[in-house]
């Protein structure tokens, strides 16, 4: 069977060795960097149409084993898939009407794995979002995450005494940075019970309980009382869904005072219609990593914000920053696999190894993007008090 498969694979000239467990092997090119060991002989048929979701599923279901650096594994898997299937894209994704129960379940699936697992590979403040590398060659992950938190606060022009709403506050890193360094009071919400518990512990340890209130709350349950001077949402709107996007941005609009700023930081689709990335990669992410996640295109996000009365005043792409962030996360996890195996199941660990390395590769290849979109809720008459330049952000 391996000999028959070699006819279609050998022309690819990849640094890959394909072997049968306890049997023969086939080198697809000189000096293989990765070995793919077939544990289930039936998988050989699937390798004739090796979509990325099929390859990922075979790995997490232990139908095959891979040996070699995980970044090399992902790159070679992509070349294998592209060589046999071409660079086709997936069909337009369906639109899911997200409800509270569905979203709570999806968030728990992804975020309530184990705080100790996340602690293995995140920075000390456990910031689980794209970092900001002012010096791409020398910034550590910890420094780049501090850079990102400060970049957000400076864009929001936070001032002492202001009230900040943090939608999707995670483990509270941004809330603590804003309260400690900018003198604001923060109200943050999350749907993750484990995130909330640890975030509250960190707030108490750092003496910030009087400045920060965090709650387990759905964004749809926020009162629309214009109670906040500024609003920030980081890594949240990917979970909202296309069908709810308009309502989501209306919620942000309703929370902020006239003249206030709203920052939306989130992953965006490559394609305007929001269809997933090619050859099954998006399908794998949706099935095993972010259930019900949907990525809007930048133009869709801006249109929805504008329809709800928010004036977009600044947009910044951080795509390469996120590729570097994910490379750090993946490297950190790979260095601590034995510790990770004691915290999560084998299947979960296999999913996360592919997810982190695969997303690092995907952002590097421009399969998706990530944007910070800053908007203002104009004062009556259309005025606002924003500076006329960006100089204050960088001074």
UniProtKB/TrEMBL annotation:
One of its GO terms (biological process) is methylation. The active site is at 359. SUPFAM superfamilies: S-adenosyl-L-methionine-dependent methyltransferases. Keywords: Lipid metabolism, Methyltransferase, S-adenosyl-L-methionine, Transferase. GO terms for molecular function: methyltransferase activity. Belongs to the CFA/CMAS family. Pfam families: CMAS. This is Methyltransferase domain-containing protein. The keyword tRNA-binding does not apply.
């Amino acid at each position: 069977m391996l000999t028959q498969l070699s006819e279609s694979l050998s022309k690819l000239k990849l640094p890959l060795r394909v072997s049968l467990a306890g049997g023969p092997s086939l080198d697809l090119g000189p000096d293989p960097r990765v070995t793919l060991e077939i544990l289930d002989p039936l998988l050989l048929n699937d390798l004739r149409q090796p979509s990325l979701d099929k390859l990922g599923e075979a790995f997490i279901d232990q139908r095959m084993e891979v040996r070699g650096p995980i970044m090399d594994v992902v790159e070679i898997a992509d070349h294998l898939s592209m060589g046999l299937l071409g660079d086709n894209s997936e069909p337009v994704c369906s639109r899911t009407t997200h409800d509270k129960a569905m979203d709570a379940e999806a968030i728990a699936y992804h975020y309530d794995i184990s705080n100790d697992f996340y602690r293995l590979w995140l920075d000390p403040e456990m910031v689980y979002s794209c970092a900001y590398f002012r010096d791409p060659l020398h910034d550590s992950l910890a420094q780049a995450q501090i850079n990102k938190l400060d970049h957000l606060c400076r864009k929001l022009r936070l001032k002492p005494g202001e009230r900040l709403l943090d939608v999707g506050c995670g483990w509270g890193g941004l809330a603590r940075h804003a309260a400690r360094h900018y003198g604001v009071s923060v109200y943050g919400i999350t749907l993750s019970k484990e995130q909330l518990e640890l975030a509250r512990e960190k707030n108490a340890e750092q003496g910030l309980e009087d400045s920060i209130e965090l709650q387990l709350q759905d964004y749809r349950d926020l009162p629309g009382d214009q109670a906040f001077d500024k609003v920030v949402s980081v890594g949240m709107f990917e979970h909202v869904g296309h069908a709810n996007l308009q309502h989501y941005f209306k919620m942000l609009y309703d929370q902020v005072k006239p003249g206030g700023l709203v920052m939306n930081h989130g992953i965006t689709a490559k394609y305007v219609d929001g269809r997933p990335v090619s050859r099954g990669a998006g399908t794998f992410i949706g099935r095993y990593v972010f259930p019900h996640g949907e990525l809007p295109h930048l133009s869709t996000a801006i249109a929805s914000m504008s329809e709800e009365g928010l004036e977009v005043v600044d947009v910044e792409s951080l795509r390469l920053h996120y590729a570097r962030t994910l490379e750090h996360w993946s490297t950190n996890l790979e260095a601590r696999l034995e510790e990770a195996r004691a915290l999560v199941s084998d299947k979960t660990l296999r999913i996360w190894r592919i997810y982190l390395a695969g997303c690092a590769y995907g952002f590097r290849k421009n399969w998706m993007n990530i944007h910070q979109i800053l908007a203002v809720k104009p004062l009556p008459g259309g005025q606002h008090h924003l500076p006329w330049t960006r100089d204050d952000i960088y001074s």
